[in-house]
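Q: I have 89 residues here and want to know how they pack in 3D. Can you give me a structure?
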Amino acid sequence: MLKTDYKVHAPANRFDLSALPVCGAKTRSGGLCEHKGNIRNGRCKRHGGASTGPTIQTYGKSHHRYVHGLRTKEVIVMRKLATEIKKTY
């Protein structure tokens, strides 16, 4: 096979990149982005943005940013007072 014959063996149902929409996001200069967008949201790889996580956020102990508060100053002082009270009785 010659290098010029590679188009012959390309599948006929390949995705047509010219059919993609233009991104159209507002740029910092005030114009519109003219890069090709993707199929999913129509924005290019620069303006599509990464995933922002699940749409339903869980709160409480199952959330990854849950702060338990066991090491705050107030709780430490209360624990020390509780141990002192236990020692006196």
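Q: Anything worth noting?
A: The chain has a mean pLDDT of 79. The radius of gyration is 29 Å.
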